[in-house]
Write a structure and sequence with these properties.
285 residues, 2-enoyl-CoA Hydratase, Chain A, domain 1, Lyase 2-enoyl-coa Hydratase, Chain  A, domain 2, 2 domains, six-stranded mixed β-sheet, 11 helices
Length: 285
């Protein structure tokens, strides 16, 4: 079952495996879920709609097939003459640079749409999680991975600096521009699930393969979806707003946010359910 406000997508399976939980699965397994043109715009459309869908309280993001979350950019497609990177026929370098900048900003906006989703997004990573896989994963709120996941900030190996999110978000996920962040970004060397967990890229490594990963991710998403959506979405918003702010600035931001949100019925319901030892239910948001 798909969310009622979403249409069908060619390169994504969008389902509702449990009440208030949406599962977005990248669906190009024959190409290791590598990205090319249409996939970007479909992903943006999906997350723009889920962000404001009152039925959605948690989003899972995974990759179809057994081999990859995503192997990153489809380099064969990027090498085609009509691709912005390869295209010629410009009057001078300034004009080509303008087209390239616009193209990069468009792709950055797709990944930022995932990061800005009002609902918490849980990445379920397995197999190859290369290049764009790191961009996408670091834009999500929470990351679980299978024990056999192979990670790589791959862009240096294809002759460019990662430009749609990794170099901006990975340091924040990993706790700063650490020696480890520079090591894996500069060298493009693959690293393991164990190393990813050690350096805060993932919070959970799931033994037993992809099926167990999806199962554990879904159980967590159902648990998260049972919470007050006012509280969960507000918590995500305030945590994200803390990036780049001083403590004092974010405390003030929190006060302004909660002066409105503390007036929801969720607060009373949560408190009374605790006193009565009953599971609360909450209105849509």
């Amino acid at each position: 079952m798909a969310p009622r406000n979403l249409g069908k997508y060619q390169f994504y399976n969008v389902t509702v495996p449990s009440e208030n939980v949406v599962h977005v699965e990248i669906n190009r397994p024959q190409k290791l879920n590598a990205f090319f043109g249409p996939m970007w715009w479909e992903l943006k459309d999906i997350f723009e709609k889920l962000s404001v869908d009152p039925e959605t309280r948690c989003v899972l993001l995974s990759g179809a097939g057994d081999r990859a979350f995503t192997a990153g950019l489809d380099v064969e497609d990027a090498a085609k003459p009509d691709n912005a990177i390869s295209a010629g026929g410009f009057a001078d370098p300034s004009r080509k640079a303008t087209v390239l900048r616009r193209h990069i900003l468009e792709l950055q906006e797709v990944i930022s749409t995932v990061a800005r989703c009002a609902k918490p997004v849980v990445a379920l990573l397995h197999g190859y999680t290369y290049g764009l896989g790191i961009d996408l994963a670091s834009a999500c709120d929470i990351r679980f991975c299978a024990a056999d996941t192979k990670f790589c900030v791959k862009e240096v190996d294809i002759g460019l600096a990662a430009d749609v999110g990794t170099l901006s978000r990975l340091p924040k996920v990993a706790g700063g521009v650490t020696s480890w962040v520079k090591e894996v970004s500069l060298s493009a060397r693959p690293f393991s699930a164990e190393e990813a967990e050690k350096n805060n890229l993932v919070s959970r490594v799931v033994a037993g393969g992809k099926a167990e990963l999806i199962k554990e991710g879904l159980e967590f998403a159902k648990y998260l979806a049972s919470k007050s959506p006012v509280a969960v979405q507000g918590t995500k918003n305030i945590l994200d707003a803390a990036w780049g702010r001083t403590v004092e600035d974010n405390l003030n931001y929190t006060a302004v946010w909660n002066q409105a949100m503390l007036q929801s019925t969720d607060v009373q319901r949560a408190i009374l359910s605790g006193l009565k030892k009953k599971t609360p239910t909450f209105e849509k948001l």
